[in-house]
Design goal:
- The chain is of the alpha/beta class and 508 residues long.
- The protein is built from 15 helices and 18 strands.
- Strands 4-3-6-1-2-5 form a 6-stranded antiparallel sheet, with helices on one face.
- Helix 1 runs parallel beside helix 7.
- It is elongated.
- The termini are far apart.
- Bound molecules: FE2/S2 (inorganic) cluster (FES).
- FE2/S2 (inorganic) cluster binds next to loops.
Length: 508
């Protein structure tokens, strides 16, 4: 039976019902979101339906909020106008409680819009707006508890207490787990930093067991530690620094299967110039030779996702190769591999043979035309790219930042726009301070003060000089991983980065 819309009380009933349903749904949304972010509800696998459910409940809550506002406007008794329900303190009727409801409404609108546009927005922006949902739920509780004809009814009091208690408990879970995870993330980072940085020398010797030429300029090398008891523990996307006989250091991505921890496969493109690193390897490194290496490090990890698309060009196939070797069988994935001539494309035939339709090898010489990334990018996949700067820039135009994961061989040009010129470093372990003038990098100032930080490229691309930031806000100017990831990990690359605050405290 349809409600009697001629009954003047109907809008008031609907207002009360929609408000209560909205409050229940918002509480559910929030609890669901907390369980998602704290990974109580999901494992590392991150099933999509969990996130979709969160979105559906929040969408339903939004419908109920709009119904609540709409029915308030339709109710003749209270006689609200648009301004009364949309502008805080515009009404004379219970101005503070109503204003709290309106503020909560606008916060929820901002959260919904930025969540819908999350793929196009910087992660830090939409996440910081998302976090205001805590304020919104408090404002809603106050709004609901201070205004309305049901306030004081025993059933209303019971439901309100259940909702408030549920959110409070979920918030406590969030705080406890976040409190546990942050130090763990810092510890992981410190561990990763300590696995190679200069303060601790953790290198090893590796022997060349195989060398295979690929096309005119590439050689594939397989190395293995001379000490086979060594525990290397590297994962897909990792790279390794080689100490060359001419005094240079060069980083190479590991292209083998991470399940074979002691089989270190690298591909080296002989660029001829660039200080002679790759040329030295081509000219001097042969089967049986022993070379000094640093422990593998990973700034390009494979994160859980429902669908992956890998895009590589040229020698950029090396980290991608280890990714496709280690991806779980249940995942959907594809690889787009770009190059000029098939014979110069490392692993091209092997990848097609092993993975069939998953792999598209686009050799311009065969296809007669260059690949159009706009047509070939999968809009629903998490994209991992490595290769030419031109290809990476095209990916940055085509793919939302939060779904894009890149590894660069060459640094991009980043210019400081911080108003802080000179700044001060506080070194946590010694308690000393070091001035960083405008004319020096942090790394140079640390070295001038006698502090050893391991560094290799000094151009913000290899990740070797990574240090943990304990206080202050760094200005990231490197090309190693996304700035949001660095902030989340609490790290900085001092060879190029600076500070946004007059002082930074580093864990060195
Ligand atoms: S030394 Fe390579 S990133 Fe700093």
């Amino acid at each position: 039976m349809l409600p009697d819309f001629t009954n003047p009380q109907i809008w008031w009933y609907l207002t009360r019902a929609s408000a209560m349903i909205a409050w229940v749904l918002l509480t559910l949304t929030m609890v669901w979101g907390i369980l998602l972010t704290t990974r109580v509800l999901r494992g590392a696998d991150n099933p999509e339906w969990l996130k979709v459910t969160h979105r559906y409940i929040s969408g339903l809550a939004m419908v109920m909020i709009v119904t609540h506002i709409g029915t308030l406007l339709l109710d003749d008794y209270i006689n609200f106008g648009w301004a009364d329900v949309l502008i805080p303190f515009a009404t004379n009727f219970e101005p503070l409680p109503v204003a709290l409801g309106i503020i909560a409404f606008w916060l929820i609108v901002a959260i919904q819009l930025t969540a819908l546009g999350a793929r196009w927005l910087p992660e830090a922006l939409w996440k910081s707006i998302h976090i205001t949902s805590y304020l919104a739920i408090v404002a809603i509780a106050l709004h609901s508890g201070l205004v309305g004809t049901d306030v004081g009814n025993p059933w209303y009091t019971v439901v309100s207490l259940i909702l408030i208690t549920t959110v409070t408990l979920a918030g406590i879970v969030r705080l406890i787990i976040a409190g546990r995870e942050k130090p763990k993330r810092r510890a992981d980072t410190a561990l990763a930093a300590a696995s190679a940085p200069a303060q601790v020398q953790t290198g090893f010797e590796a022997r060349v067991v195989e060398r295979t030429p690929v096309g005119e300029k590439i050689a594939q090398f397989t190395l293995t530690p001379t000490d086979q008891s060594l525990d290397l523990e590297w994962e897909a996307g990792a790279h390794m620094t080689l100490h060359l006989g001419n005094g240079l250091e060069r980083q190479y991505s590991l292209a083998g299967d991470p399940a074979e921890q002691n089989t270190l496969v690298i591909g080296v493109l002989n660029t001829g110039g660039e200080g002679g690193g790759s040329a030295w390897i081509h000219d001097h490194l042969s089967v049986g030779d022993v070379i000094r290496c640093e422990m593998p490090r990973n700034h390009f990890p494979l994160k859980p996702a429902r669908r992956y698309q890998f895009v590589a060009s040229g020698i950029g196939i090396t980290p991608i190769r280890s990714m496709v070797d280690s991806i779980p069988a249940s995942r959907e994935w594809s690889l787009l591999y770009l190059g000029r001539n098939r014979e110069d494309m490392l692993f091209a035939d092997e990848l097609e043979r092993l993975f069939g339709d998953h792999v598209t090898v686009w050799a311009t010489g065969e296809k007669g035309t260059r690949a159009n990334l706009r047509e070939l990018i999968d809009p629903s996949a998490d994209v991992y790219g490595c290769g030419s700067e031109e290809m990476l820039r095209e990916l940055e135009l085509q793919v939302a930042p939060r779904r894009l994961h890149l590894e660069r061989f060459e640094p991009i040009t980043r210019v400081s726009n911080s108003s802080v010129g000179a700044f001060e470093l506080t070194l946590n372990r010694s308690g000393t301070t070091v001035e960083v003038p405008e004319t020096e990098t942090m790394l140079e100032s640390l070295e001038r003060a006698g502090v050893t930080v391991q560094a290799s490229c000094r151009r913000g691309v290899c990740g070797t000089c990574e240090v943990s930031v304990l206080r202050g806000e760094p200005e990231h100017l490197d090309s190693v991983m996304s700035d949001a990831d660095k902030d989340e990990l609490g790290i900085v690359y001092p060879c190029v980065s600076r500070s946004r605050t007059p002082s930074l405290t580093l864990d060195v």
